[in-house]
Write a structure and sequence with these properties.
The complex is a heterodimer of chains A (about 250) and B (about 375).
Chain A: H1 2-18, E1 26-28, H2 35-52, E2 55-61, H3 69-79, E3 88-94, E4 99-104, H4 115-131, H5 134-155, H6 159-162, H7 168-191, E5 206-229, E6 246-251
Parallel strand pairs in A: 1-2, 2-3
Antiparallel strand pairs in A: 3-4, 4-6
Helix pairs in contact in A: 2-5, 4-5
Chain B: E1 6-9, E2 16-19, E3 25-27, E4 34-36, H1 37-59, H2 73-77, E5 79-84, E6 90-94, E7 110-113, E8 123-124, H3 131-142, H4 150-155, E9 162-190, E10 194-218, H5 225-230, E11 240-241, E12 251-253, H6 259-279, E13 287-317, E14 320-327, E15 333-335, H7 341-367
Parallel strand pairs in B: 8-13, 9-12
Antiparallel strand pairs in B: 1-2, 3-4, 5-6, 5-7, 6-12, 8-11, 9-10, 9-13, 13-14, 14-15
The chains are: A alpha/beta (about 250), B alpha+beta (about 375).
Amino acid sequence: MKKILFILTMLAAFLISSVAMAASCLIDNADLLSPRQEREVLQFLEQVERSHNVRVAVVTMPTIGNSSTAAFADKLVDEVYNDGAKGNMVLLQVIDQRKWYISTDGKLKEITGTSDAVNYMSKAFVPYLSKGDYPNAYKVYASKANDLLAYYAQHGKPVKKEKPFPNEPALVFALFGAFIFTKSVRRSLINSMSNVNAAVAADAYLDERSFELKDSNDTYMYSNVVAVPRPRGNGHHGGGGSGGHGGGGGGY
Amino acid sequence: MAGNTVSYKCPSCGAPIGYIPSTDKIVCEYCGTAFKIETLDDIYDKEQAQAAKNRAAKEAKWHTEEAGSEWSEEELAHMHAFTCSSCGAEIVCDENTMATECCYCGNPTMLPSRFSGMLKPDFVIPFKKTKGEAVAALEEFYKGKRLLPDKFTANNRVQAIQGMYVPFWLFNSDISASGVYKAENDMVVTTSNEIITTTSVYRCERSGTMRFERIPVDGSKKMDDSYMESIEPFDYSELVPFSSAYLSGFLADKYDVDAEAAVARADERVCRSAEGCLENTVMGYMRTRQMEPCAVFKENGAVQYAMVPVWILTTQYDGKPYTFMMNGQTGRLVGSLPADKNKLLMYSVAAFLGAFVVLYVLLSNTIIK
């Protein structure tokens, strides 16, 4: 309950601060861009909006408290960016957490909100975020969103179904797995040609009842101590979004 | 006091370590492991005692001189010997049987020679499996072998399989064994920053007694040991005193590895089994491994000489001999078959493509998105 109240408070503050901008496609509350950079980025975003009748927005926030980027970005789509004729999507960047999140509404969920689509876009713009080159990060985000929307407009299907992105990790794992499998098949086939095995022991000739343990003595000698740092999870993750939303996010 | 520094090896890493008696703990400068002096003294004394046991164990011997006996004049008169002109194998049979081809190399030229230089066996296990059963077992063995070249089965002479008695030395002994094992237990503690694993290491000494009955070691150089061990075991309840009458219709190999020469192989197998028995009693630890070879003392190490029944066929393919053997008592058949390289390549490519497609589809759609 506290979390929801916090999100609502933050959104209210955000809405008040953005009334003057009339829900512009670019709201830089974290003050990352100069006025000239803002104009350039906005030009990019508006161009995509005009081409596809889809709101493609960028919002930067210095902080969102303890609330999650996903919940905050979904609220933005529901309550701020909800006027796109063919759909709405927003890239939220939170400075203090160094996290980003792309949220889409239900209309774009299958086009730009799938994990494939988010991965496709994030792979291109996250390196710029990491370097602090924010103008180019937002331009690349807009450009990749434009690619996905253009493909859908031309083919009537999301990119994934018509032409899957080459899934490089899957390709590498599949090649490695196939290589291991082939080696085991080869070994199994070759081994099946012979059943000759030298006997290493004489267990078959041991009279089991004759065994008698005469002496048993255990002595403690020493101890070794090894300490390793605990692994910490801090990776990028695409996702399917929640409720009627699509999207995904990660760190940079 | 002279000589107050004693040299030890670190039980953890094996590096040399030294200590001064006025301290109560020493630390290995190579691996950093700390030891109590009393613990090191105890380990050192036990190692000395174990080494003494090992030396004594090496001196314990089998009574190989008791194996076999001499042939009578009457028996000798009925025995014939044949020598292979190709590999030199000497095959023995009775006067009514002919060695028509060498069972080791497949050479058809067997030259008659004078029978001599062979002890009379103590025991024999008579053939129970017939030639028909041996042929059927061999044909069954070929089935389901995907890499078997087509030409091999077309040219194979399964009917040429021969029954032969193979000389074996049987080793009996009561033994006492002692071994030292290193055992480890881990305790893992997780803090907010680290995972700390403490491994406690123990020295576990075990000794026990056991009895081995009739461990077989073949007495023929030409008979591949791994083949003979693969057709084991034999059912010794059917072992009977040797009579040359059992040779009728079968060949017999003349031993060229005497009992003394076969001892090493018997010792090796006894030691391995004794080590396993003792190691099985080291319980309550997460990991166990042997620290040094077991000391095995043989008591009443009796050796017997026996003939065991084997159906054997050697056939040539692509210039190489391929041998098949069947236990003439139990019917267990072993052999090695040639592999067709083209078939192997075909199956490998098919397996790779099939696995790649399945894995790629599976991974790209479910696990790695």
